[in-house]
Amino acid sequence: MLAVVTRFAVATVVVVGLVVLRKRKLQRLQARIIYHRDKDLGRRFGLDVGGTLGKLVYLEKADAATELGDVHTFMLANTSYSKSSMRDADMALSLPGGQVHFVRFETSKLEGVVEFVRHRCFHRDIRAIPCTGGGAFKFSKLFEDHVGITLEKCDELACLIQGLGFVMRHVPDECYTFKNVALNHQGMGEATKTIVHTPTSELYPFLLVNIGSGVSILKVTSATEYSRVSGTSLGGGTYLGLCKLLSKYKSFDEAMVASIAGDSNAVDMTVGDIYGGNYTQFNLSADTLASSFGKMGTKYEPKSGVKDEDVARSLLIMITTNIGQVAYLSAQRSDTQRIYFCGNFLRQNEIASRQLAYAIDYWSKSKMQAQFFHHEGFFGALGALLTHNQDLL
Ligand SMILES: Nc1ncnc2c1ncn2[C@@H]1O[C@H](COP(=O)(O)OP(=O)(O)OP(=O)(O)O)[C@@H](O)[C@H]1O
Ligand SMILES: CC(C)(CO)[C@@H](O)C(=O)NCCC(=O)O
Questions:
Q1: Rounded to whole angstroms, how far apart are CA atoms 162 and 154?
Q2: pTM metric for this prediction
Q3: What stretches pass through the bilayer (predicted)?
Q4: N or C end of the chain: which has fewer CB within 10 A?
């Protein structure tokens, strides 16, 4: 009898214990789900992974600054972990809902970034990140397998338009142009950088030329309506690729610095080189660029007397002149007067923007105007961020 009672008591204790344990486990699980729902930091990010660069924006909410402590630590560590120039601290946007920060990294280093996230256990608070650009497709498995983060795919052009519209509405001095485009074909001249405020009633339609690795050209007819009217494979990737191939410069920033000092006439052939002066019949002055890199074709030893900085400058002028012409022709075809240029090719690249301004003014006989943005390379990532932060709109 005693044995039966003992067995019954033990069984009861075990069953009760199991029920309690199960309940606790359930509670823990519930708590974990709530914790994740509350701390799903992925919604504070927008990622744009392109052919050359990855762009990350994150929102630090005004009412919950401390919550993002780890994210801040990660960003600061990660940016010095790649390159200081990749951090755009001075570009942060202050909005009523919080601050938006911007970070850039090389797409080729993405695996390193993922490994860093895993190493720091940073991914524990992130289930999904909205992501745009080709990398949203190409790297979704990498994120899923290594850190269990889902990349929520967003279309790159839709995000570009969304981010662009947001910046145009919220950042008062975002757009600028060059007035009195008295430049020559080398992008030299006295044109003055001027902030432009265009009222929304006069904004549409316009042409948007996004110069990334390649170039996409969109006709934008309203805040949400656009079509991709053209594109060219001769873009920022071409410039960087040819620079690395033909000169000693190993990075975009090095090439930019060098191109300021370079003289493209050492490499290019001008109308003057061919005519010995102006080609007056068709109003082509002697200093007009006749053939990019043309001089190199006439020399037995092309590199003699040519400096790497001349090559960097000439490449910059070649790529930019071509994009300017394609943009002008596209604007004509699409019946738009204003052309906006964006994309990271224009980052800290005043020679290129001045040259584009000149090209548009020159080809259109001053009927069209080129405009630029201070946050030129982050619209896609911003658009991705906005998919979960409609309140910011
Ligand atoms: N730090 C940098 N490292 C490399 N390229 C840079 C850097 N800064 C500016 N660039 C220029 O920006 C270009 C990439 O621009 P962007 O980030 O807009 O395009 P992407 O998203 O990589 O390309 P795509 O949209 O065609 O996939 C490079 O090809 C280069 O010309
Ligand atoms: C392929 C994309 C859209 C990727 O961003 C871009 O690099 C691009 O527009 N390239 C030019 C493709 C074309 O010739 O239309």
A1: 11
A2: 0.87
A3: 6-22
A4: N
Pick the CATH number of 206-267+306-373 from 3.40.50.2000, 3.30.230.10, 1.10.1040.10, 3.30.420.40: 3.30.420.40
What is the predicted ipTM?
A: 0.99
156 labelled catalytic = yes
Q: Look up tokens 């039966």; give the residue.
A: 4
Instruction: Please tell me if the CB atom of residue 252 comes closer than 6 angstroms to any atom of ligand 1.
Output: yes
CB 185 within 8 A of CB 289: yes
The DSSP call for residue 265 is: G
Q: Which carries the bigger pLDDT value, residue 79 or residue 89? A: 89
Residue 380 Cα: closest atom of ligand 1: 21
Does a cis peptide bond (omega within 30 degrees of 0) precede residue 172?
no
Decide: 205 in ligand 2 pocket, CB within 6 A. no
Whether 11 shows a pLDDT value over 70: the answer reads no
Tens-digit pLDDT profile for residues 246-283: 999 999 999 999 999 999 999 999 999 999 999 999 99
Q: Architecture of 35-161+381-392 per CATH?
A: 2-Layer Sandwich (3.30)
